[in-house]
Amino acid sequence: MRPNFIHCSCLLSAALLFLVAGCVGPPLPPPGPVADDSFWNGDNMMGSPSIRISLSQQRAFFYKDGQLAGVSRISSGREGLDTVTGNFKIIEKDIDHVSSLFGDYVDANGNVIQKDVDTSKDPKPKGAIYDGAKMPYWMRIVKGTGMHAGYLPGYAASHGCIRMPGFMAAAFYHSVEVGTPVSIEP
Q1: H helical segments located in the chain
Q2: What CATH number should be reported for the domain holding residue 153?
């Protein structure tokens, strides 16, 4: 008797789908009322944290054991300074992080001489002091990219980081550990 190839093929497809789905984590909620405003319900939830970031939706989704704990509006990297995509982990946390690359050049009294500088490209004027951009609740994901509290103009506008409202950055920061998985999708 010949094996039922259609039945075997269906079982194999289902098994592969289960394995792939287990690797990428819970599905992102669709854009709409749930995803339009930032919210946090994770304080009383237990379980392993994970984060999924949708660049197209400009949203970060926080999960605990696969259950949605919070959604945050974000501002990701603008064109030419795009936020990286892929699967990462939180590799550093710093509640009072200051950028070593982006900021302002100021005088001795703190007056801005040159705004929005990139220290790798913009030479420091004579007598100027570098004042790095404040990045509270810093959660480094890869190299110079991380999540942190920052300005949200309603579109992708950062130098590659994922900016969040302060209260959401604080909630994410206090709920992750070094090693927490982060998935960034186009």
Answers
A1: 5-24, 33-36, 166-175
A2: 2.40.440.10
Contact 161, 33 (CB under 8 A): no
The domain of 99 spans 5-185
DSSP state of 75: B
Please state the pTM of the whole predicted model.
Answer: 0.78
How many domains does one find in the chain?
A: 1
Say whether pLDDT at 4 is over 80.
no
Rounded to the nearest integer, the mean pLDDT of the chain is 86
Angle (CA) 164-146-55 rounded to 5° is: 60
The rounded distance, in Å, linking the Cα atoms of 107 and 50 is 42
Which tens digits make up the pLDDT trace of 132-151?
999 999 999 999 899 999 99
Nearest to 40 by CA among 182, 177, 172, 146: 172
90-117 in b/e form (b: 16+ CB < 10 A) is beebeeebebeebbbbbeeeeeebeeeb
Contact, 147 vs 172, CB < 8 A?
yes
Beta strands in 11-107 (DSSP E): 39-40, 49-54, 59-64, 67-73, 86-89, 92-106
Closest CA to 120 of 137, 139, 144: 144
